[in-house]
Amino acid sequence: MYEGAIQDLIDELSRLPGIGPKSAQRLAFHVLAADTTDIKRLSAALTRVKEEVRFCVLCFNVAEEEKCRICRDPRRRDDALCVVEEPKDVVAIERTGEFRGRYHVLGGAINPLEGVGPDQLRIRELMSRLSSGETSELILATDPNTEGEATATYLALMVKPMGITVTRLASGLPVGGDLEYADEITLGRAFEGRRKL
Amino acid sequence: MYVRRLELTDIRSYAGVAVDFEAGPSVLIGHNGVGKTNLVEALGYVATLASHRVSSDAPLVRSGASSGVIRCAIVHDGRELLAELEIVPGKANRARLGRSPLRRSRDVIGALRLVLFAPEDLSLVRGDPEQRRRYLDDLLVARQPRFAGVRADYERVLKQRNALLRSAYLARKVAGRKGDLSTLEVWDQHLAEHGATLLQARLALVDSVAPHLEDAYQKVSAGQGKAVVEYKATAMPENILQALADVRDEEIARGTTLAGPHRDDLVLRLGDLPVKGYASHGESWSFALAMRLASYTLLRSEAIEPVLVLDDVFAELDTGRRERLADLVKDASQVLITCAVEADVPISLRGARYLVSPGEVALVQ
């Protein structure tokens, strides 16, 4: 145990995800040793993120204005909508450069064990976006785990009667890897989802 | 396949011990409570990452030590592979295979194939259906590792579905309002899908294992009664959705999932009579033994011959059954036998002999 401010900082840091007591201690002493201007910048960034970052009124991605950068972009297609769980998933898909449509961020996945149902997610907002009739394809890019799959199935059941094409991201082998290193679940899924050449 | 060497550091009663084995039969002899079973339990842990005696890892580590290490050299097709597991209670295990660390300790499964019969297995016959489902699923995973994933998926979906039913049940009971069951249909679909995959595999497995079981029981008991297994399903693979719909009201009333492979059982019979409640102690014992032997002969007939472990078995059998069991397993690539009284083990199985005393194992020359 340290005294006063340094221990306070260690305690606060160790509440962050992925940071244990040892890492928190290392970070705290790094902060103590670092240049004052650097730390002022860090602390300003921390304050700003809570004060200025908002959620886009359309897609619920993080935004600095009323609408996020992607929703404001007139060059993007309006007929394709990609549903993801979290803002970080938008970033991941954007890195591919493959998708030029719009997004919708649910804010999680259906998870009864944690008390998350459709009402806790941005599903009602998604439905009202879809009812405008502009979307012709809905791409379900929720995580390929039990909760993500259930969310995808739930959305598919609701959206299909609206006459919108619903697609799901494929699951399979990582590109550039060796077959022998794939775990049996991934390899099993890839086998199930094999396609004709 | 056989285990050439087993080294334990801070596991159960052993601070440090190393035992060299050979192919063929080996007998571990020692008084009660000296740690014979600890040795085979450690081998079982390398094979399945679970103990056959306890459900948590903490008891495996020697009391006073913070972690324990199991190291085991396995010979298969003339090649030796070193599997190492570090057990740290409350944390993830660390595993190494052939000196290189594995990303997930789960990947060590398959390096050692092992079929273990222990006194606890009497619960296969006398215990809850869960024991028999576990017997089937463990064997399923040993044959096709992919089913570890199917089983985990099914259990996860089941947990989520139960949580949903439970929260609706509580909303009604406690708050007096109608719970939100709008996603129930989704969980039904996923439960039916994973359930059908699991169930189809179990049904196929029962078909494959049944003749092996009949044969093993026949040989152990010298033809006294015919061992029969039958899978009792709450719903067939294509009917799970319908079965869920049929019990829907009751499920909502009770707040839990009432149909699906997690409610199934394996019915064991001797001739026309169920084993549970009708068979004698000796018959029940022989039946449980035959179930493990059936796993063993099934795996052996299809793929790599597993190592067979018979923990404290012979003391429970009469002389005739002992001799017939010995005949059945004496040509196995490796059989490890534990016993308190050496005379209980038939002559044909007395290969290498090891004397086990507290904290030590010595080869008897």
What integer is the average pLDDT of chain B? Answer: 91
> Mean of residue pLDDT of chain A?
91
> Measured on Cα atoms, how large is the radius of gyration of chain B?
22 Å
Gap between N and C termini of chain B? 24 Å
What structural category do the secondary elements of chain B indicate? alpha/beta
Strand order of the largest sheet of chain A: 4-3-5-6
Which descriptor suits the 3D outline of chain B? globular
List low-confidence stretches of chain A: none
Largest sheet of chain A: 4 strands, parallel
User: How would you sum up the global shape of chain A?
Assistant: globular
Biggest β-sheet: strands ordered side by side in the sheet of chain B? 2-1-4-5-6-7
> What oligomeric arrangement do these chains adopt?
heterodimer
Measure the end-to-end span of chain A. 64 Å
Structural class of chain A: alpha/beta
Compute the number of helices of chain B: 10
Domain Toprim (chain A): 79-174
InterPro entries (chain A): DNA_Rcmb_RecR, Hlx-hairpin-Hlx_DNA-bd_motif, Rcmb_RecR, Rcmb_RecR_Znf, TOPRIM_dom, TOPRIM_RecR
Family (chain A): Belongs to the RecR family.
Protein name (chain A): Recombination protein RecR
What does this structure look like?
The complex is a heterodimer of chains A (197) and B (365). In chain A, α1 (4-13) packs across α2 (21-33). Chain A has 2 domains: 4-52, RecR Domain 1 (Helicase, Ruva Protein, domain 3, Orthogonal Bundle); 75-168, Dna Topoisomerase Vi A Subunit, Chain: A, domain 2 (3-Layer(aba) Sandwich), CATH 3.40.1360. Chain A contains 8 helices and 6 strands, in the order αααββαβαβαβαβα. In chain A, 43% of the residues lie in helices and 11% in strands. A 6-stranded antiparallel sheet of chain B has the order 2-1-4-5-6-7, covered by helices on one side. Chain B has a 6-stranded mixed sheet with strand order 8-12-13-3-14-15, sandwiched between helices. Chain B has a 3-stranded antiparallel sheet with strand order 9-10-11. The longest helix of chain B is centred in the middle third of the chain and has 38 residues, at 184-221. Chain B starts with a strand and ends with a strand. Chain A binds chain B through residues 110-113, 115, 117-119, 146-147, 149-150, 153-154, 157, 183-185, 187-188, and chain B through 104, 107, 145-146, 148-149, 153, 156-157, 159-161, 163-164, 167, 180, 182-183, 185-187, 189-190.
